[in-house]
Amino acid sequence: MLELDLWYLIGLPLLFAAGWWLRGFDARVRAAEQGAAPQALTRGLNLLLNEQPDKAIDAFIDVVKLDPETIELHYALGNLFRRRGEVERAVRIHTHLLSRTDLPAKERANALAELGQDYLKAGLLDRAEDAFTRLLQEPAHRLGALRALLRIYQMEREWVKAIECARRLEREAGETHQVAVAHFHCELAQAALNGGDLDAAKRYIDEALAVHRRSVRALVIAGEIARQRGATDDALRYWLRIESDAPEYLPLVAARLTELLDATGRRAEALNLLRRNLLDWPSIDLLEIAYQRVCAWEGTAAGEQLLREQLRRQPTLLGFEKLLAARSAAAQGDSELELLRMLIHAQVRKLARYRCSKCGFRAREFHWQCPGCTSWDSYPPRRLEELDNT
Ligand SMILES: [Zn+2]
Predict the structure, then answer these.
(1) Count of alpha carbons within 13 angstroms of residue 303, beta-carbon side
(2) Structural domain tally of the chain?
(3) In which domain, by residue range, is 200 found?
(4) Ligand 1 centre from 366 Cα, in Å?
(5) What CA–CA distances, in Å, run from 26 to 30, 31, 32, 341?
(6) Residues within 5 A (CB) of ion ligand 1
(7) CB proximity list for 309: less than 8 A, separation 6 or greater
(8) Contact between residue 342 and residue 373 where contact means Cβ atoms under 8 Å apart
(9) Residue 48: which CATH number?
(10) 256 alpha carbon to ligand 1 midpoint, in Å?
(11) pTM for this model (two decimals)
C-alpha cells in the first residue's frame, strides 16, 4: 500500500502537468514544444507509481531542461524526498539544479540552500557548513544561513564560531541568544578547566557571567575555578549565590559547598544550609547529600533521623530506599531486609532519571543541553519521581 507521503509525491507532478496543459490550452501556441514536456512529466509520474523513484527523478530532470518553469516542481520533490529521509535523492535533484548554469543566480542560490538542508539532514556537517557559508553572501539567504550555521557549530562543538554566529544574528536579525551564548562560554570554560588551564577558564567564565549574570551553570563553574585556584571566599560566594538566585539548583553544588564550608570551620552553617533547603526546596539529590553529611558529622543515628523526618514531609520511593539501605547496613545479617531493599532498588531505578521538559528525553545524568532536542536549560534538577509528583 502506498503511504500518504508517496501520494503527495505523485500528486505534485500531476498538478504541474495539469497546469501545463491549461497554460497550453490558453495560449494555443508552442503546441509542438509543449508536447515533449508533459510527456516527460507523465513518464516520471508512471515511474513514481511503479515505485522507481530514481528513474522518475531522471525523467523530471529532463523536464527542467525543456522548461525552466518546472523548477518549483524540483523544490517540492526534493523537499518531499528529504522529509521521507531519502536524502540521496534530494541531493541529486538539488545538485542538478545547482549545476544548471542557464538558471538565474537567484534560483541557484535557492538550490544551494536546499542542498545545505539535505546535508544537514544527512549529518554531513562539513558539506552543510560549506553550503551555508557560501550563502552568507546572498542577502536573501543570509539570516537562514546564519541560523543553520549556529546549529551546525553547536553540533560540532565549535563554540567560538557559535558565539560569533549568535552575535551576528543578534545584530542583524534582532534575535536574543543570551542564554545559549552564556552556555557556549561555559563550554569553553569547562574544557579549559578540564585541561587544567585555570586562567583561561576564568576568562571564559567571566565572559559567561557578563552575558548572563544569573546563569546557574556559570556560577557552578566559577565556584569550581575559584576553589581550584585556592580562592575559597570567591568559591563560597559564587555557590551561595545559587542558593539565593536559583535554590532548586543547589543540589548541583551542595556537596562541594558544604565540604568547603566545613573546611573553613563553618560546619554548623553547612548543616543549617542543608536543613533549611530541604524544608524549602526538598529534593532527592539534596536529601542524599544532607544524609551523607549528617552521618559523617553527627553519626548514623542522626542521619537516619533526618531521612525519617524528610520522608514524612516528602514521601518518595527513592527516599524510602535510602532509609532501607541505612537500616539494612545497621542490622547486618538481616537477609530479608536486604532482599526487600534490593527489590525496591530494582523497581525505583527508572524513577531516578532526569527528564527534558521540552522533549521528554530521559537521562541518568543531569544535562545542561538536552541530548535529544538540543535545548539549553531544559532539564529540571529533579528526578523523575519528583517531577511526576509535582
Ligand atoms: Zn529535550
Answers:
(1) 22
(2) 3
(3) 177-245
(4) 12
(5) 11, 11, 15, 82
(6) 356, 358-359, 361, 370, 372-373
(7) none
(8) no
(9) 1.25.40
(10) 28
(11) 0.83
Q: What is the pLDDT of residue 1?
A: 42
Distance (Å) of CA 359 to CA 181, 379, 381: 22, 10, 16
Query: Considering the domain boundaries, does residue 87 fall inside one?
Result: yes
Please report where in the chains the cell 543566480 appears, as a residue.
105
DSSP for 242-280 reads: HHHH-GGGTHHHHHHHHHHHHHTT-HHHHHHHHHHHHHH
Domain final residue, candidates 207, 223, 245:
245
Question: In this model, does residue 249 exceed pLDDT 70?
Answer: yes
> Average of pLDDT values for 218-223?
98
90-145: per-residue pLDDT in tens?
998 899 888 888 888 888 999 999 999 999 999 999 999 999 999 999 999 999 99
Task: Take residue 150 and report the three cell numbers written for it.
Answer: 549556529
Instruction: Report CA dihedral (13, 19, 21, 23) to the nearest 10 degrees.
Output: -150
Question: Between 195 and 13, where is the model more confident?
Answer: 195
Give 3-state DSSP helix, strand, coil % of the chain, rounded to 5. 75, 0, 20
Q: How far is the CA of 367 from the centre of ligand 1 (A)?
A: 10
